[in-house]
What does this fold into?
Amino acid sequence: MSVVTNTTTIGAIEAPSRRNTELGLLAFAVVIPVFAYLNVGLALDGKIPAGMLGYGLGVGLLAGIAHLAVRKFAPYADPLLLPLATLLNGLGLVLIWRLDQSPRLIRRAEALFGAYSPDAPKQLMYSAIAVALFVAVLMVLKDHRILQRYTYISMAAALVLLILPMFFPAVNGAKIWISIGGFTIQPGEFAKIIIAIFFSGYLMVKRDALALASRRFMGMYLPRGRDLGPILAIWAMSILILVFETDLGTSLLFFGLFVIMLYVATERTSWIVFGLLMSVAGAVGVASFEPHVQSRVNAWLDPFACYQTDVTGACQQIGDALLSFGSGGTLGTGLGQGNSDLIGFAANADFILTTVGEEFGLAGTMAFLMIYGLIVERGVRTALAARDPFGKLLAIGLSGAFAIQVFVVAGGVMGLIPLTGMTMPFVAYGGSSVLANWALIGVLIRISDTARRPAPAPAPSPDAEMTQVVRP
Amino acid sequence: MNKPLRRIAIFCGLLVLALLIRDNWLQYVRADELNSHRFNRRVLIERYSNERGNIIVDGKAITGSVKTDDSDFAYKRTYVDGPMWAPVTGYASQAFDANQIEKLEDGILTGNDDRLFFDRTMAMFTGKKKKGGDVVTTLSGAAQKAAYEGLGKSKGAVAAIDPQTGKILALASTPSYDPSTFAGNSEKDSKAWVALDKKHNPDDPMQNRALRETYPPGSTFKVVTAAAALEHGKITDIDEQTDSPLPWIMPGTTTPLVNEGNIPCKDATLRDALSFSCNTVFGKLGSDLGKDQMLETAKKFGFNAEQFTPVRSNASFFPEEMNASQTALSSIGQFDTRATPLQMAMVAAAVANDGKLMKPYMIDQLRAPNLDVLSKTEPEELSRPLTQEHAQMLQSMMETVVKDGTGKNAQIPNVTVGGKTGTAQHGENNSKNPYAWFISYAKTDSGSPVAVAVVVEDSNANRDDISGGGLAAPIAKNVMKAVIDSRR
It folds into this structure.
């Protein structure tokens, strides 16, 4: 941790706030999706889309409000996070709008649900609510250390959020939704933030105990039994999520998050070894008897095996996704000209990356992945710059969770790891996801603002006047 | 706390790196494989996304494309006189893939072939719709019509080629099927497809008999045996008496080889033996020549090799391992000898073209949408089964067959016609319906314009050698006449 030394009465040089950099980048982050929107319209109908002005103004307005809020409430925040999130959100809207116009998906929706309604307007509304939440986070959360007070409340809240979906019916084989009134919410998305708060608070208090009070065994530091308790509890919980909610993604995210934060807090490599061993044991154990997980693993091992046996089954999803990526090639088909909608199921949610792959090609997909990578690295940078351990842990927890989520979703869709039901942050359709991720960015911006804010000038020493410096 | 943070930063970087590598693997390394993967529906969507190019006969399209309101497939294939042309075109179905020319030249027909890259690029800039190129065939509409209508309701096939170039002029197979009935992907199309399936239709209408069915060639194979006898110096004068006892006991057996009916085969000349179709004379000739010399000549005529026209034709078969009596039987087109109609047309063509066998082909040109010729097939010599002198001797003999022998039904006024009849028995104890064969060629002042092979599987065929002349020869005659008339 850097310690600002104040040995002189001269205040620290004012650090640049970088707000104008952010504004410039935001302009790009708005203009690029607007051009993409135009591109889709021209490709699909051959004319400038009617909603272009509304869409451009909408995204521009949201970006402007978010920027003003950052300028007002977090003037020293990291200048990259907001533009990157805006760019992803904007492009996500374009992709959803593009898939809204797919005759295949419209017909599929009409056949399955009797009616079809476009998702893009809803997503724009969710984005507006999400930006409002982002602004609210910045307004209410004047200092991230306030969150430390809610360590155990967070734990309780996270548990409730994670357990709730068990009492609701499974959707597409996974119990990760709860429905209240007409709304369905994916509590797992919010739980990842709340759980990061709990881990940060808990580990900040216990880290010395965990790191130092351990026995050496075979070159590794083994924790004491009573310190092991909470870790085993988390492990058990993630296994339970896997078993009862058949949600591979959330449990992986959850446990990975904990291992990362534990490692950062204690600086003990042995924790990583423990974490990996336990997650492997848990995953293999569950996969051996859970049919839902098993089928996912089988589809991953041989994506095209079930094309002959099961013509309509869901096991073709991964194969379809791979074909979509392959068909995109290096440069892609161009927006609106691919056939990624052939995948049918969750084309604009879990599988939205296939549309990126097919229509933007290898070049565009790599750009998307790099944007996600940049967000993660800005988050890690925030953690490095943070001055307090709680802020460090929270920042690394949030960015780690973000990184794992991106890896799990993108890796699943690209066939690198077994497919799990999770959404691509900011890009995929879904209110919970957009809301939670904007809140996550809000918290990161808050921490980075605190971290980069110049240290307050030391209070004038009361006896400064009396001291005379005698200069020879 | 910063050291582990840096390590986590590296870890997150590695996660992203793994995704990037995987993405390159999928979208660069495996792109082509996935793009043309057999489960990739985009291949089909692409095939029908534009107006498909046509297959052309005599300057007229025998295929077409109609716009559909299907969400996946913009166009559907249509066929003009589908059943007649099916052995040439094959089919292109949205639900059941494609075959033959429709499959082999798919790149040209869809417009995706590399040779059409320039046209595609131009179309992109000029804003014109992409269109497929055309496949111009060598076939003759008149000959095909004569062949298809000649076969009528009976089961059989006709193959006709131009002996001087190898151009395929007619390729008919009956019973046939109409590829337009299952060109789409609706319920109706799959019903039509299932109904045509061999399992549901014992007539197997989708079998291309002209190229893919091998029949015992019967007496028509005696032309090959005669060629072998001439080429290997066994016979030098076709009008000199041969040493052919009657009855003739096959070597190593006590079974006599019998002739069909009471015909004058004892010590018959080669000309008379061919004219009367003497089993004894040719059986003995084949057995005296031996299997190696027979095989050598048969191979030169194209036996034991697949032909690519470019549509694949099954390999005709002359046995490689057999004893003397089996050689005798094989030499009269029985035992294991089998030939496709195309193969027997090639035999007639080689004789007609003075011993030079041209490689048979059915695609003359590939054409860009703007009618530029992308490629043109040049005639190519396949082999020389016999010398010019021997070929002319054989011609003289085959012409006698038509003038005075079993092939009188193939006579055309003012045209020299040479031919050979055949009736092949098959099945256990020859119980199944015999195949009536006729191979022939016509000759005009400018050489031979057509050679043809006809096979009819028919219950009405008599078991004597006349049936080849009775059932198959008139069809061959009409096909030859159609070609000659259309050239006038």
In short: Chain B has a mean pLDDT of 85.
